[in-house]
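To: structure desk
From: M.T.
Subject: fold request, one chain
Message: Could you run this one when you get a chance? Sequence is below, nothing fancy, just the single chain.
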Amino acid sequence: MDDLEHLNAAPIRELLGVLGGAQAVLMAGAGVSADLGYPDWWSLVEKMQAELAPEVVFDRATTDVKIAAERIKVRCAEKSTDLQPYYRYLRSQFEPKARNSGPFQSQLVRLGFTGIVTTNYDMVMEHSVCASHEFSGCHSIDLCDDTKKYLVLRFFHELGRQPCSCVLHLHGYYERPECLILTESDYRYYYDGVPRGTPISGTRSSPPQDTLHRRTIWALLATRPVVFVG
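Reply: Done. Structure tokens follow.
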């Protein structure tokens, strides 16, 4: 135990120094929402396979999760005249639950982060900010919403405001399931600029474009210390 405490001492001091500088941005991953009943990436894909496309077979040990998700989406498109059942399913997995915040999430948002970014589709961070600060003005910004790209400027403009007035959803938001970043083609569209409908191949035919997602992440990492949790 003493050796473990010794090994952890330096990283903990460094983290406290970063938080004390009031400049750190929180990057919240799926683990932040897991204890509230929201699935992580692989759990979601396996649930989708079982409930939407059981005939799709893949080996978790050897298959990229983005490719597994792609196969499920393609199969759902083949089985239906549109993808509405697929999108309704995704929305149902991440819409608000009876309990959307707990002790862990509440303590996390009280650490003084200057802004909150998440790859999650749920509203756990927004609910946690509101519950922890008795505040009702924390809004969601969906970076995947092509009609409201300008809102990312609001996120950067309001960095440092306490409590956080908005949460930036890098990979989409449950209310717009058709725009979530989940499959291989989703990643290529939002991060590489590959047009929708382009066949998936093992290699990229051209260098990735300078997309909004790439520019946003670059701006965050270049200007702020980012703390990854979950």
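Reply (cont.): The mean pLDDT is 90. Let me know if you need anything else for the meeting.
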